[in-house]
Write a structure and sequence with these properties.
Distance between the termini: 71 Å
Number of domains: 3
Structural class: alpha+beta
Radius of gyration: 28 Å
Strand content: 15-25%
Order of helices and strands: HHHEEEEEEEEEEHHEEHHH
Bound molecules: dinuclear copper ion
CATH superfamily of the largest domain: Cupredoxins -  blue copper proteins
Shape: elongated
Oligomer: single chain
Number of strands: 12
Helix content: 40-55%
Largest sheet: 5 strands, mixed
Strand order of the largest sheet: 3-2-1-5-8
Amino acid sequence: MRTVLRVVVLLVLCCAAGAAIAQGSVPLEPGPHSALDPAGPQADHIGQLWNLFMTICTLVFVAVLVAFGFAIARGRRRADASTPPDLSSLGRHERGPYRSVVAGVVISVLLLLVLLFASVTTDRALARLPLASALHLEVTGHQWWWEVRYDADPASGSFTTANEIHVPVGRPVIVTLKSDDVIHSLWVPNLAGKKDLIPGRTALLQFRADHVGIYRGQCAEFCGFQHAAMAFEVIADPPAQYQAWESRQRAEAAPPGEARAQRGQQVFLGSTCVMCHAIQGTTAMALKAPDLTHVGGRTTLAAGVLPNTAADMKRWIRDPQKIKPGTTMPASTLPDADLDALVAYLGSLQ
Ligand code: CUA
């Protein structure tokens, strides 16, 4: 009885460990950051492959545990008799166990071949995404934010944004990936697999969003202190809405209207902000940090760390190290009134 109890406890512990590992590696809930809630063909192929792996591995796991439990229970029963072990079978060719081993090897090889075939088929399916009239983007990884450049022909129509990628629904997207410092990895589970951004190299990632929505992306390669705080959003808009967004982004920043925002622009242009940031249409042209031309229209600040509200923007500018320790942005020594004016100006940059 005690043996059976031990086997049951062992089985329960193994199943719990398996479930915990699966839960940690892939978010199992459907939502804006889940590989199991595909919103495009690439993520769909990967999701199907994951389901197949999960099903086969679960069946094998359960079969192995059942065999294991059976062996423990049987071995115990035999050992209970206080007779010396029967070693006469060691020199004998036993048909039963021999057949079991051969069957086990054959089944394992066949299952591994099924998984190999499924992986190769998925890889080929990923490479077959139709790319006619694709949208071209360039994403550069920085410690710890994402620079997103939309190229255009002529180049004067190009523009740069940060930590937010807008794409039109139904149109393929080709992303060129680069890194400015260390290795990062771009991962939007609902849309595509991971792809590394490696310094000195370029990589390509193709995907298509088939459903309107906001999908969360995350850096998936440890890249330093704030690796976990290196998120972004992919916003899949209907084509007309995307076009409107693109034309707004292409435009230079509108001159500030109200007096407080005008004062804010003076503060911005007269402070150290211009050493790192650019606002198109002004004299601020630095490329070290996110382009702020349309920062007011973004949903988050500091690569997904804060919502883009006036209060959070003020908190962020006053002491970024408190919110995201290690970030390259220094704390501000501006008087409160100047800070409020600066926040009003940045908020007006829609
Ligand atoms: Cu960038 Cu981790």
